[in-house]
Amino acid sequence: MKRKFYAIYDKLAARYTYLFESENNQTATRLFQGEAMREGGVINQNPEDFKLCSVGEFDDLSGEFENNFEKVCDAIKQEG
Description:
It is a single chain. By secondary structure, the protein is of the alpha+beta class. It has helices at 25-37, 42-45, and strands at residues 2-10, 15-22, 50-59, 65-74. 11% of the residues are buried.
């Protein structure tokens, strides 16, 4: 089965961080935006510095990793 992996790009650090697995772009976006809305969190304080990217798929039967990079979304800060 192919498993999808995502990373958060930090513009200020100029690197990808927080590699994680999610079912699809929509569930990954939900997790990312949830963290962006967390009061006091670094993404919430500086949303312009972060974006979510799909980095590839891992086939857990063959052990192969396919690099399929794409930007998924930008961080959105929720006010109030």
